[in-house]
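Dear Dr. L.,

I hope this message finds you well. Following up on our conversation about the binding site, I have prepared a predicted three-dimensional model of the protein together with adenosine-5'-diphosphate. For your records, I am including the exact sequence and ligand specification that went into the calculation, followed by the structure tokens. Please feel free to forward this to your student if that is useful.
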Amino acid sequence: DRALRRVDEATADLRDDILQREAVEQQLRRREEELVGFAGVVAHDLRSPLSNVVGYAEMIGLVDDDNLTSKQQGYLGKVRTSAGRMQELIDDLLAYATADNTTLRISEIDMVELVESIVAERRVSAPDATIDCEPLPSVQGDPSQIRQVLDNLIGNAIKYTPENQAATITITAADDAADPDLCRIDVADRGIGIPESQLAEVFNAFTRAEGSEHYPGTGLGLAIVQRIVERHNGTVGVTQNTGGGTRFWFTLPKTTASVRVPKNEPEED
Ligand code: ADP
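The resulting structure of the complex is given below.
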């Protein structure tokens, strides 16, 4: 009897613990949502004053460049670079804050076409890059959001390749081993790589791996990638690329039936 009572008590304690932990987790999630919402509002409000700074700095450079001393030109250059970084951060913050609450408009995406158009845009800043892309299948998703996912990954692969080395990027696709309804897309590069111990953390917002200090960045791109992919019912991951560099991957539904429509969104026809 006593033993049974002890088991009952232990079970009740365990249940209390679980309930308590669930309550704390829910509270943390709510706090995170509030913080992200707040960051979104701030980013939105900073956008127009900052574009004034960028615009006027641009104008001084265009109109008054001849009247500036070289010292003043140096200062102006610093204003432009810093304002440009701030714009990048604000755009990333906004994308991060809205990634969860914009309505998904799901349609069939021709991945080859999408990759080609991203590569064409990226070519401007990385003319020497070798970008191999095997025939990719079509997937289901929101075209502008999936574009952002691929653009962030391809952009990182180019950015985190040292300047004296031409970027080598390989994009491949295969059925997901765990779920036949999903297609897995890999973006592999031969850049600076990520230390093994930090691989698990790079998807966290504002987290940057050791070795990336010399490259501009906000630490938000991969957090945006993860949010978007998870909203599509997919998963993301990263490993070291055999032979050096990094291999990022994400999965996406192959059919509309396997796309998760979030609870607060009406199902699209
Ligand atoms: P950002 O590039 O703006 O810092 P991300 O969220 O896109 O932010 O990436 C987070 C971190 O992950 C980067 O700071 C960098 O340390 C690492 N990282 C991302 N992609 C790569 C890559 N292709 N090669 C090496 N490191 C990478």
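In brief: The chain has five helices and seven strands.

With kind regards,
A. P.
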